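hey all, quick one before standup. I had two proteins in the batch that finished overnight and I want to keep them in one place so we stop losing track of which output belongs to which input. First protein below, input sequence then structure tokens straight from the run.
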Amino acid sequence: MKKYLFLLALPVSLFLSSCGGETKTDENNDDSTVVSDIDYTGMSEFDLEPHGLMASMMVTDIISENGSPFPVTVVRDTNMLTWDIKVGKEGNEEFYLIIEETDGEGNYIKREKDRLASDDVFKEEYLTDENDLLLYKASLPEGTGQRDYYHVFGLVKIGKLEYIVHSYAMGDYSEVQARDMLKGIQSLREPSAI
């Protein structure tokens, strides 16, 4: 009987010990459990340190027609303090985020919402509207025959600096592509933090 009890208890104890999130220690030496419900399937971590930004982020894995993955292209503009992160065929990237240092004036999400509200061409609908993160659908007026476009905008702190991260304004992204870019924004952290 003890054998059967042990055999029943073993799977239960293994299951219970595997529950929970990843334990990390923060700067104050406090252990905390970090539970992430973001599914990064189909994405890979990309290090931005060689491009002058002490961070890494998840980027989508896009496969070309010949079966090999598209490389990640980073264009750094040291005058404007921006980094363009691109994955996909040149001129038709499926993942295109721009990271830029903030101007120090604050209210970045509100300012972006105000800019979108003053748009006379597109009507925006927010699919994700969190404190520092937006995913929105931009629609043309009914009957134009155009499909909807999706874009992302977010505010991320890396070290002591804040950065605005947004999709390329001229891109015509699907909802799936925009959600991948949203995950990219959510994953943008100092390399040791991912």
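OK second protein, same deal, sequence then tokens:
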Amino acid sequence: MTRPTEVRFSAVLPASRRATKNPSRRLKSSRAVVTGLLGLTMGLLSFPSVQAAEIQTYDIDQFKATTGSDAFLSKGSQEPGAGYRGRTINYEQSFALNSTEASYARSHGWLAKTCSGQEISPANIPGVKLVDARISAALDWRAGMIAAETLQKNRHGTYLDTLRSYWPDSFYNGSPCNNSDEAWNTASVNLVQAVRAKTGGRFVIANGAGLGSGKAYFGNQAAADKIINAAQGIQIEQWMRNTKNADLDKRLMQTMIGKGKMVFAKCKSAMTTCQSHFIASPLTYLSSTTR
């Protein structure tokens, strides 16, 4: 299996309502009847039979949501702004810990280490430490922290970044001792399930290795599907980044719609290109910007 180099994420989110929005913010698409969505329920969201009249959008990498967007990813203290009618989702790193969190995990022996005893960090963020989510107590603690944030901020759901259908060697400055792809795939599934349970069934959007493009997904489908089946949606982080693989990206979106999963496509090409391949549906969202 050829594994793609992982690229860092940055967005997400869903919505079921059709709130009144500024028409100038809408990305128009041809009208199409969406089938196969009758009575679909995911977490706290219900999707009745809908005629898709436009492309739903979501805001990413912005301090506040734009008035016309359907969804907004909230990082840290970010708030969507007064009167925002879209849905908000709590962004969390799945296994990466800040210094305070790492200190607590270290005191319990929960930090991932190489066989030589080195603590592990993302290669580009040395101040962040990796929790060893293969340890059940560590994973339960991490899920509880994430869920508490989602509930405290009263978000509609949680976005989990850097989940692992396989271990991406190039992403970190080392590998955990006695490491395996399967162990991190299992830990990712368990985290998704635990966060959803601890938030009372609020949806979880998954992002990470094996999920970010059609090429990545279809090259690692069996393991990726374990995470997808536990989550209520995914982000296609590299939507149309390589137009040579446009058919694979679109096929991934079609596959997720068929599974009843929400899809957040982060545009990585010209917006006109991203729109032309996008499948308008009550389950799909396109980023409002290209980044």
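Flagging for whoever picks this up: The chain has one domain: 23-94+134-287. The domain at 23-94+134-287 is CATH 3.20.20 (TIM Barrel).
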